[in-house]
Amino acid sequence: MSNLSVTVIDSPAKLQGLALSWNELLEASVSDSPFLRWEWLATWVECCLGKKRSLFVLSFEEKGRVAGIAPFFLEMSGGVLPRRTIRFLGTPEGGSDYLDVFCRRGRETEVADALYHYLVGEGRGRWDVLHLQDIPAESVFLLRFLNRVDEVGKYYEITPGAFCPVLDLASDREGWPLAATPGCKKKFHKELAILEREGAVSHRVEEEADAASLERFFAFYRQATGRTSEVLHRLLAGYLERCEKGGGVSIDALAVGGRDIASLLHFRCHGSLFLYLVAVDKDFNPRISVGHLLLGHCIVSAREAGYRRCDFLKGDEGYKFFWATGGRRTLQLRLWRKSPLALSAGCWRMARHAGKLLLR
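RE: above sequence
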């Protein structure tokens, strides 16, 4: 059994109290990602928590020092007897990827044990279903937690989450990624030549996004996609306000004759670019893919800047797989508490799966 104590963080004020230790712990873990930073999740709480959701962050401590954090919230659903589901902060609004329970390297087993014992012990009356989405398949915490659940013989369900295409940016002498196929490069140069007939082509990179550049990006995003994107705009604006020096957010844009025709918003972290949002003027020239052209420019400039990898995050858009050399898989975990309400939800889910099998 773990010797770690557990503290429940159930208010924004208490969450603020973890601000200093949160990112330090994240950087000391194997789970570091932009979507687990304190600034990102604290902003998500501000924008998305809502009436039927409440903070349920668990801090695992040893001698007053934080050793692990489970960034959770509780969601109420249902009628007379609402079901209480534990979920990760940052989802579903915000489209966060690579969420996890994080801790200092080498402490994964202790934190997994502490979480399990809290859920079945002191905290058992606070939840019905544990539903964690967008966990990296390679998560060390997940491995240790499932080992603990297996040891006691409890039933759980693991299902596929998303697939995130990834491009290795190791390059050839021309500056292109080694994995870029001749057809990919040929398409880029052919379409670039067509685009240059429309006017002067420019690729703009804003390494440190600020409020003004973010406003320009979302003005173009709304125009190009027809989506209001209010939650995403507030989330990113709040994130930048909480961060220093742009928070690792970059914006690339492709313009012709001074007119933007495509734009990408990235997060930067540990030598990787994470492609978070894309906006493309699809009506500009139907003969070419301006998104493909912008991504090509972005990939070459990222390699020149020393980045090692471009992670396209979840989504099955064709351009991602056109450039990708591999990818990362995320998973979903469901665990039901031993209670009538939770067990009825689990049995109903299994019955639905059985029905699908019978109907095939």
